[in-house]
Amino acid sequence: MSENASPLDPAVAQERCAALIDMVCRGGADSADAVVIGSESQSIEVRLGKLEGADRSESADLGLRVFCDGRSASIHSSDFSDAGLKELSERAIAMAKAAPLDPYAGLAEAQMLAQPPYPDCDLFDPVQVTPEKLREAALAAEDSARATAGVTNSEGGSAGYGSSMVALATSNGFAAAHRATSHSLSASVIAGEGAAMQRDYAYRVARHAEDLPDPLEIGQKAGQRAVARLDPQRVSSGPRPILFDPRIGHSLVAHLIGAMSAAAIARRSSFLLGKENDTLFPDDLRLLERPHRQRGLRSRPFDGEGLPTRDRALVQEGRITGWLTNCAAARQLGIAPTGHASRGAGGAPGISVSNCHLEAGGMSPAELMSDIEDGIYVTELSGQGVNGVTGDYSRGAAGFRIVKGELAGPVAEFTIAGNLLDMFARMSAANDLEYHRTINVPTLRVDGMTVAGE
């Protein structure tokens, strides 16, 4: 590797992976895979119209996984030199030979690996980003938020840009890389005075700069949200219908996806254990995964073990469609890999999904709440009161009361509780689905939840 070569260059990264694979196989490994994960980013933060901070970073890590006689080891380094690769390969082989036997570890079968040409998901934006442009955007977003009547202070505005690269190679024939960019913009402000102050924010991230909203829109949304929360009231305890705003409703889907992980099933630590053939959702709700969505925040042409990624329904006709696996978990459960391996520079592959969305329903949010005499529209959740084994759900919340089918003022300092299985069975969706998050959902209604307030 030449001194001027950057490991963030996909061609350089692939060459380093190939060189490392060759070293460990000649050194006695049965098989191996190598990954390079690199990123660079810059961000500007402003507060009250002045520069608050500027950050620029660049990193690149090389990960190696080695298999020897049914044993395996993972190791990573930031030294991409020939000498560094040689040392890394020798240490990895020694570690693998000393590791315990693992009957489930190993590469994906060669015939399962993704083949070129790989899907082009349009994840890389070639636009030139300068600190001056980022500062202008951050200032515009904050100024717009501060101009909202009722806003009294600011926690700042920020704008950022980043690019990333992933290269993966395996000893049984896979070698590919892909790049992506991200642009972000946010504003966070405070409304009111003293003990009555309320804070809220607006944030957006996109693969391409042209897909970001105008900074004025981000600022206005942050300011309006903060002012709308002023003078919150308490609520009485009891059962109520709950509506989840899309910016927090996606967390319900995230809990489901975590429980669908084959690793959790193998550990018997999922509330979905034994429920794979049960009707869990209303028949008209579908959860879809779209790994090749153009400019998607989690789009990827192949997974962390080199398997192809494919569109699929995760929930259909009220049922989940199977577990989400990497190769090790698939072997442990005796099922086929599903292309959901995730990979960092260190450690064994994990399990993750790509872009997901819960399909929109037929009613507007106003229509979805029109028959609610007394309910709550939740815009914020706090705490971590979710039990992944039982599905029990209890989280602090804030939002707005629903009285006789309409929003009726802010409420805060209460808890909503239930069980995720019951919540899924009573879930209905509005028609306001938008695609700008990793997990996208419309406004969701869940009947029969328990509210703990006054």
TrEMBL record:
List, in alphabetical order, the Gene Ontology terms for molecular function in this entry. Answer: metallopeptidase activity
Q: Which residues form the Metalloprotease TldD/E C-terminal domain?
A: 239-453
Q: Name one GO cellular component term.
A: cytosol
Give the record's GO biological process terms: proteolysis
Recorded hits in Pfam families, A to Z, give: PmbA_TldD_1st (PF01523), PmbA_TldD_2nd (PF19290), PmbA_TldD_3rd (PF19289)
- Ranges annotated as spanning the membrane: none
Q: Where is the Metalloprotease TldD/E N-terminal domain?
A: 32-96
Organism's domain of life? Bacteria
Query: Which Gene3D superfamilies does the protein's record reference?
Result: PmbA/TldD superfamily
What the entry lists under InterPro entries is as follows:
Metalloprtase-TldD/E_C (IPR045569), Metalloprtase-TldD/E_cen_dom (IPR045570), Metalloprtase-TldD/E_N (IPR002510), PmbA (IPR047657), TldD/PmbA_N (IPR035068), TldD/PmbA_sf (IPR036059)
Domain Metalloprotease TldD/E central: residue ranges: 125-230
- Similarity annotation: Belongs to the peptidase U62 family.
Recorded protein name is TldD/PmbA family protein
Organism source for this protein? Altericroceibacterium endophyticum
